[in-house]
Structure formats: C-alpha cells, structure tokens
Amino acid sequence: MCRLVTSVRDRGNDSLAATNQRKMDSKDVKQDASCCSPVCVHNPHLDALKDDVLYHFSLGTGTHDLPAMFGDVKFVCVGGSPWRMKSFIEYIAAELSMEDPKAEYPNICAGTDRYAMYKVGPVLSVSHGMGIPSIAIMLHELIKLLHHAHCTDVTIIRIGTSGGIGLEPGTVVVTKQSVDATFQPKFEQVILGKTVVRNTDLDQSLAEELLQCSKELSQFETVIGNTMCTMDFYEGQARLDGAFCSYTEKDKQDYLSKAKEARVCNIEMESSVFAAMCKLSGLRAAVVCVTLLDRLKGDQLSSSHEVLHSYQQRPQILVGSYIKKQLKAKAAHK
Amino acid sequence: MCRLVTSVRDRGNDSLAATNQRKMDSKDVKQDASCCSPVCVHNPHLDALKDDVLYHFSLGTGTHDLPAMFGDVKFVCVGGSPWRMKSFIEYIAAELSMEDPKAEYPNICAGTDRYAMYKVGPVLSVSHGMGIPSIAIMLHELIKLLHHAHCTDVTIIRIGTSGGIGLEPGTVVVTKQSVDATFQPKFEQVILGKTVVRNTDLDQSLAEELLQCSKELSQFETVIGNTMCTMDFYEGQARLDGAFCSYTEKDKQDYLSKAKEARVCNIEMESSVFAAMCKLSGLRAAVVCVTLLDRLKGDQLSSSHEVLHSYQQRPQILVGSYIKKQLKAKAAHK
Predict the structure, then answer these.
(1) Record-annotated residues binding phosphate (chains A, B) (predicted)?
(2) Angle CA(A160)–CA(A191)–CA(B302) in degrees, nearest 5?
(3) What is the pTM of this model?
(4) By the CB < 8 Å criterion, does A133 face chain B?
(5) For residue range B276-288, what is the model confidence (pLDDT) as tens digits?
(6) Integer-rounded Cα radius of gyration of chain A
(7) Partners of A247 in the β-ladder
(8) For chain B, first and last CA: distance in Å?
(9) What ipTM does this complex have?
C-alpha cells in the first residue's frame, strides 16, 4: 500500500507536489510495485492515529470495516446534490444489471446529513454539496477512506451542472483543464496562512475516452473544453441577478467573452480543487458537467423542472455508459 | 422599500460599500424613512426581471406570494446542517409556545435538496451547507427573498459549530470580528476576475445582548472573541489528520498560537462572507458557534455522538432565549 511520507515543511511552494515527484523515483514507491495504482495519502501523522474518524461521513476505522465495505471500489462518482447521487446509483445498478428490485439503496452515511453515499458493486456514488470548501472536506475523507480500504486503480468522475458559454443548453462538457476566475489553470490552497499553488491537470486520456463514449451513444452533444471554477455563483460568475451587482451588462459580456477566448466552455464551482486533490492522491479523474443555460444569453435558471431534470441526467448516462464499457472490457480480458 | 441602486462600475474597490455610504445620505434613502430598516439589495438589474427565480430555494416571485409567506419574518437563523435547522424550528416553536403538536414543520424548500427552510411565526430557519461559496449562494437568495417579501427590522444569526482555541469544548463563542487565515478582518470577493475586499464587521450591540442573555441563562460558558474563517477544514485549519499534510505538529501549534495572539477564539468556515453580505444588505447580524473540541489539544472529532449533540444545542438554546426575550419586550412595548 502506498503512503508517500512527506516531511518537507511548507514554505510557500507546493511541497506535496514536489515531494510526490521525488518519491515517485524512490525506493519507497518501487517497493510498492505489487499494487497497480493505489490511492495515496500524503500525511505521516496518520500513522500516529489509533483510529481515524471520518467525521463528515459518520464512518471510521475503529467503527467500520472499511476494506470489507469498500475494498472492491473501482469507480467513484461525485456530484453536488444528494438526490442526484441516489438517482445515479439506481441508474447504474440497472445499467450493470446489479439492481435488487426489493432493495432500497441505503445511504452509507445515514448517521450524518453532511454528505450522502451509495454503493453498488464496484461503483461508489457520493454527494459533495456546493463549492470548493464543501467538496474539499468530502475529498479529504474519501481519499482516506479509499486508502484505508486498500483500493487500487480507482477512477473518479465528477458529474455536475454548470453554466455554458456559447453552447446550446443541455450540452455536456468534459473538462480539459480547470481554470480560475482569471482563466489560469491553478488552485490556491491556503496552508498555515500561506498560499500554495496547486496544479489542476485532469486525466486527458480519460477525457478522450468519455468523449468517444458520447459519440458512440449519440444521444446529446458533448464537447471537451476548459471549465472555469469560481468561488461564488452570482458576483463570482458575473451574474446580473444576485442581491448585489455593481457592474453592467456590457461588463458581464466582456468578461464572459474573455473567458470564451481562453477556451472556457462552462462555469461551475468545484472542479479546481477536485482536479488538484485527485492528482495529488493518484486518482484518475474527470469532470463531466451539463450546461443548464447559455450565460451569454441570460443568468436565471428559469427552464421547466422537466427540462432541467432531463439535462441533469446526461452526465449520468454518459458516465454510466463509460463504466459499463470498462467493466465489459475488463471481464473480456480475464 | 429600499433599493440602493448602484451604477458605479467595479474597478477593484468595494464600490458597493462606498456607494452604500454615499446613498445613506441621499434623497433616495431619506424618502424611505417610513420603513424602519429594510433589507437592501444593491442591484439595478433586478428591476428588469419579470420574475425572480430563487433557484436554490425552489421559490420565485412568479410562483410564490413571498410577502404573504415571509412578510412577518423578524429573525432568521442559519446553520450548516439541515437536520439542525429543523430541530431549531421545533425548539423555537416550543419556546415561543407556538408549536402545533399535530403538525410536522414542512420544509419550505421541499422542491430542492440544496437547502432546507422552516418557519414558525416571525422566525425563519435556513440551512446553508458547508463553506463560503455554499452560504453565499443561500444569502444572495435569502436577501432577495426578504427584500421581495418587504421584510423590515430583520435580525440574522448564524448558529454553528467550530473548533476552539484554548477553550473548554462546549464553550459558545459570540463573534466579535471575523478574520481570515492571516488574522485580517476582511473578506475577498472576486468580481469579474478582480479581487474586491469587503468588511467583516458584525453588530457589536447584538453580540453584547447575546452575551448578556447567556449570563442570564447560566447554563454554559459563553465568550466574545474573534472567529477565524477558513476555506478548508483540514490543511486550511492546520489539522494533522487530513489526506494531505506537509507540516509538523510544531508548525501547527505555532500557527494556532499566533491565531490566539490575534484573539481568535474559534475557527469555522462561513462567518466572513456572512458578515460581509449581511452588512451590505443592512441586516443586523451575529455569529454564535459552539466549540466541539480544543484544537490546541487535537484535531479529530472523536467525542461521543451524545456529547457532540448536546454541545450543538447550546447556540440554539442561547438564540432561542434571545428571540423570546426580544419578542416579550416588543409585546410589552405595544
């Protein structure tokens, strides 16, 4: 099992990323060649913990047999809404012919209302709430959970909603690169009061495989492009319909046009920290979001409930199809 | 009804705050003297909207009679957990002798799983999820809701949980000032890709009244102090138990000691944007958080469910007592 121990003290650089790279060539990792691709934590202090309480999941190493519960997980899908993540597990169960018509899929995190978690076979579905801090708490505990459960070769995909830029509503965007509000591909993490810059690279081959899957499905438009990740839904995304707005329609259009020039196809609120944390922990990661509206044409989400609901199913359908294809290929390979 | 129209384009300064101050002396506001203290939006574009869809509440001006539903609201309590905000409305209903033993308190936002909202008499209880982006979306839509409902003289209190610094677990902290991870009393809002700095002042007289209330209750320790608001629960709060940690126990202790020197009593993840947005909209605001552990002594939330649950009731008890006292005083004044 891989644990990349870091003792480098943070001095404003991303010591974790640098240490990660150094350790990749070290004996520690070479000795771990037996496991194909583990889920890595980078925290020497975890060894000192008798039990590890995953507080926001209401799970823990002292109270739950995590390897027995999660050891077979190969795909993790995450999304903001707990309802959507429950609907995804029902959908994937049917797709994989693993549904139990008698069973309700129980919420594994029923002891808390912070996140919801469902599992069927090798697929885990977890909600993360809205915004970077909310998904970051979930990812810290998810990465530790997968590590404690000795999971290997895990693919993680965020299935979400977003505002599109110059795209027909309902278009699905597979993220090439997550960029910040100044269109830079970086995530700023504050540690001990100092800002550390982290890389937001996602797995390009996974993105291409997802695009290929969508072509084969041929049910809706899917594109690959950059995704802007913001800290706010209203002023942070140049919306004109928040409680506060100190800029004009022209200011908004100018800003979104600049985003478009930087190849931003859509805007959401979680992709940058998702990309950064998955990269640090060695998870193969993708972001697949449907656009609910074209932000060049408006700000309000005023489409009917039915239309918005059908759009939200598209990332589920695409990712469901991808997982099915992967499992089929793996079974054929055996 | 007050609407402080701003046409000043954002150029890196906090134009809203500046405009707010100027407009306070202007005719526009003087003409509004009939309303004691309205809930202010600062967005000239809202006039152009036929209907205003409050998407994350699943409410809207075109679909709901907001003045009839919310016009009598005088107290809004917000907190991260939907379960806790339901339990608060049940508690306050009993405290105010307004409970209906036959009634379940319905979730007013039942059409969405993003936030939960409950109401009894003049008290509204709303969940906000975890982190600055999540509470900011809720506050934009709450401020618009209160504005559309023509509410006046509204007091808003965040009742939350936090990590304490050098305090006995279970101590309640009423926030004097919300500070960032460098202990500065400011909130940075990114607008059109530029950073605008906003003030995080809270209502000092309200904080003192809450402290006085706690003295009268005499059930648990309550202090007034600064609250540090971070973007992350693990690395952002110098925890040693996240998936990633590149610093030592000594680094952590040094950082928390500096926080203590800056009079930080507790750490949470929402107070700065809460303070900033409430100030801009003219809401009388306070933050009341219980400390679940002493961060100088540990990081993990490993106390029993019962102990943590009893701690979490303390802000509810304090704020319940405050609301009851205010309503009694108002009734006596009539």
Answers:
(1) 114, 158-161
(2) 80
(3) 0.93
(4) yes
(5) 999 999 999 999 9
(6) 20
(7) none
(8) 24
(9) 0.93
